[in-house]
Amino acid sequence: MPRAAAAGRARAPLVVCCHGLGESGLRVAPVAQRLAAAGAVAIAPHFRGGGAPTAGPTTAMTVGTEVADLEAVLEAARAWPFVDTSRIALFGRSQGGLVAMEAAAARPAQIAALALWYPALAAPAAVRRRFGRLGAVPETFTSHVDGRDIVLGRDFARELWGRDVEADMRRYHAPVLLVHGDADADVPLAVSQAAARTLPDARLERIPGAGHGFADADFETAVERTVDFLAWTGVLED
In whole angstroms, what is the distance from residue 94 CA to residue 150 CA? Predict the structure, then answer.
């Protein structure tokens, strides 16, 4: 957090950073650090069923449990005396982008902006295509992302099956930044292109040659565009 907020001299904006499938908050901690340097109170929580040692099995996790975890973090953080509750934003990468989108759609008046990197917004449609019918979902199955196979439980697919992400996107009218590489094999660029057409107020930043996960110069570009966007929205001070 910024020093002035830590010392109780000022209230600062809040950005909660949501990690991807099978990860922990450490995966988005570098982004949180950069947002804190830009003036935000930044949180990178470990969601249940993620990659943290105490997170529990991935088979017990659903998008719904992660949304609930995010809502619990927001509820706690809004009570902190150093947080400016009028300037709250969410950041998410991959599945964390879907989680952030769903949480924001459920409370659109409370979330001032979204910054999403290669968000997995088409996950419900992908699950329906993969299994065809809900009864065909096995007790466990794997999802391949970032070069890893993540074991998921039947409840993950069941909970995701009926989500209407397009309708949720249409309900969220605050600004949204989508940052996506055009060489992403896990979440194709077309997902963010479709989201940019669906969201009422969205900006799509395309990173040539980048895959699923930004490194080195691509990471710097994505962070810079994210900080600039949050300053433009008024969440961060310009």
Answer: 14
Say if pTM beats, i.e. exceeds, 0.90. yes
**Mean pLDDT in order along the chain per 10 residues (238 residues):** 87 97 95 97 94 86 97 96 96 98 96 98 97 96 90 96 96 98 96 98 97 95 98 94
Of residues 98, 111, 93, the one with CA closest to residue 175: 111
Structure tokens that stand for 52 in this block: 């943290």
Of 114, 94, 119, whose CA–CA distance to 235 is shortest? Answer: 114
CB contact at 8 A, 165 and 100: no
Neighbours of 209 (CB within 10 A): 9
Query: Among candidates 83, 84, 69, 85, which has minimal Cα distance to 17?
Result: 69
* Structure tokens, 125: 């449609």
For 109-145, b/e burial (b = at least 16 CB within 10 A) is eebbbbbbbbbbbbbbeebeeeeeeeeebeeebebeb
Q: Are 92 and 233 in contact (CB under 8 A)?
A: no
| Beta bridge mates, 203 | 177
What confidence score (pLDDT) does residue 68 get?
A: 98
**Distance from C-alpha of 124 to C-alpha of 129, rounded to nearest angstrom:** 9
pLDDT at 109: 95
Residue type, 21: L
Q: What is the pLDDT of residue 4?
A: 87
